[in-house]
Fold this sequence. Notes:
Structural class: alpha+beta
Number of strands: 7
Number of helices: 4
Order of helices and strands: HEEEEEHHEEH
Strand order of the largest sheet: 3-4-6-7
Largest sheet: 4 strands, mixed
Distance between the termini: 71 Å
Amino acid sequence: xxxxxxxxxxxxxxxxxxxxxLDKKESKEELKESSAMIQQQIQQVGKLIVTExxxxxxxxxxxSQNLFLNLFTSDKKALVVANAKVTVEYDLRAxxxxxxxxxxxxILKRIPEPVINIYPDIxxxxxxxxxxxxxxxxxxxxxxxxxxxxxxxxxxxxNLMDNSxxxxxxxxxxxxVLTKSLGWTLKYNEVIIENEEQMKNLRR
Length: 204
């Protein structure tokens, strides 16, 4: 009887040991599989997001120079019409992430800043210039810089930046949905992301 009990206990211990070993192996394989899926999703998210807009600007450029001990002035002016294509880009290849396998957590370490590109098409009308004060390279550079500055102001006042951010959050939301479905946690700036609405309000 004692041998039977001892044999039963030994068999039970072996069964439990094998079960724990297989369960541990299965858990490791599941963790490895889920981390691979998350890494694949991060790679898919890592693409350039571009939002486009078109803006116009019209202004008059004037310049006067004093000549001959300020006895005379020499003027030049032009009507400047600029039509600009503007893109707002997020290069998510610069997205910094870290996988904490022990705690099954995806950590967003850095979200890249938006990059604003301005491509102006500038035309000049009613150009007048004196012999001693003609348009030169410095004037055209100054006009281009002025156009870029004014277009940038319009971009900041428009909804272009908000639209680009919405597209960014849509991409990152895919990462949140995947991590949640796999039982993982998504964290940014030490804050655990609980829902998609919280995701939309992330600040870099």
